[in-house]
Amino acid sequence: MEELRKHSRVDVADVMRGFAVLAIILLHSIEHFNFYSYPDTAGQSTWLNFCDKAIWDGLFFAFGGKAYAIFAMLFGFSFFIQHDNQRMRGKDFRLRFCWRLLLLFVIGQFNAAFFTGEILVMYALVGFILPLTCRLSTRALVWLAGIFLIQPACIYFIIRALISPDFEVPDSSWNAYWAATFDVQSSGTFWETVRVNLWEGQLFSLFWAWDNGRIFQTAGLFIAGMLIGRQGWFLRDKLHYWGRVLAWAIAAFFPIYGLDNMIDGFVSNPVVLSQLHILLPSLYKLAFMLILVCGILFGYYCTTRLSKTLAMLIPYGKMSMTNYVTQGIIGSALFYHWGLYLQLGRTASLGVGIAIFLVQYVFCRFWVGRHNHGPLEWIWKKATWI
Questions:
Q1: Model confidence over 208-223: pLDDT tens digits?
Q2: Which pLDDT value is given to residue 8?
Q3: How many domains is the chain partitioned into structurally?
Q4: In the structure, what pLDDT confidence band is assigned to residue 160 with cuts at 50, 70 and 90?
Q5: C-alpha of 73 from chain center
């Protein structure tokens, strides 16, 4: 455990960061970066229609809600590393981390000016749960993370709806905010797009996150990542614990996934049904995310050939923030009206996502060979210690 505390970076964590950002880029590319504007497919060949559907369904099944979850878990893990390193020097990192979150909020606003689906602003807001809870016992943190991950708001709404059939969930109107951003993305100038992204786009993103259980899940994953750091579970000698995690995750995924796909015919209350369709996907996607994490950990630590392949993602993971922010800038310039306004199908859009990754990866290999941190990572670190 002492070895983990003395190092600011853990290679397998960078592998997972690189994997998560790569998956996020591929998803954002086929979504046209929250624009969802596609050419007419009426005259498209059957095989291309098949490819479009296979790519969409396949990528979202494999990565939708999972890549983001890995990223969130690693955010909590990084907090533990930073906090514990300062603790060993006799310093309290909590207030400094609050300042770091304010800086992240600014970086997130810059990112949001280009891309409405960005998550850094939400991380900056939810992230205050970490300095508030980091001194709690491990048992207390396990309970707290568990409560957040089972979607307490959904459970509350379900209970209310069962008690009072006339109960309705408060409407956040995120659809109206998204429609406003879509209109400007379809026909607006760059500055019009920036304006709508920073107001309606941010409201859409945050309200959507609330309505889809992302706020509580993110808080739970932040705490889970902090616990993983505290227990040293990313070290090779703790790998046996992940065998148990894998068994439980597989056992949980299939019944919860099946239940989510069958309840429509058995639940008549619309509020209960809608909340179950938030709660159950949140749980089975969490289970699938753990399966992915276990696969990366076992592949990195147990298989020499696969370890070398996964290690290629380390430079990309070290610059995860730079890559995440620049993918939004590049994507909006390619697909929004103010930019090239590309009208591509999902198959071609996947090719765009792969191209973005390759360009970023080449740059990362070049940059990491000469610097310890990526450009945005360096700015964030330096500003943290002002």
A1: 999 999 999 999 999 9
A2: 52
A3: 1
A4: very high
A5: 9
3-state secondary structure labels for all residues of the chain: CHHHHCCCCCHHHHHHHHHHHHHHHHHHHHCCCCCCCCCCCCCCCHHHHHHHHHHHHHHHHHHCCCHHHHHHHHHHHHHHHHHHHHHHCCCCCHHHHHHHHHHHHHHHHHHHCCCCCCCHHHHHHHCCHHHHHCCCCHHHHHHHHHHHHCCHHHHHHHHHHHHCCCCCCCCCCHHHHHHHHHHHHHHCCHHHHHHHHHHHHHHHHHHHHHHCCHHHHHHHHHHHHHHHHHHCCCCHHHHHHHHHHHHHHHHHHHHHHHHHHHHHHCCCCHHHHHHHHHHHHHHHHHHHHHHHHHHHHHHHHHCHHHHHHHHCCHHHHHCHHHHHHHHHHHHHHHHCCCCCCCCCCHHHHHHHHHHHHHHHHHHHHHHHCCCCCCHHHHHHHHHHCC
Domain membership of residue 312 as a residue range: 2-384
Exposed/middle/buried for 274, CB within 10 Å: 0-12, 13-18, 19+?
Answer: middle
What is the model's pLDDT at position 251? 97
**How much is the pLDDT for 43?**
75
Predicted pLDDT at 45: 87
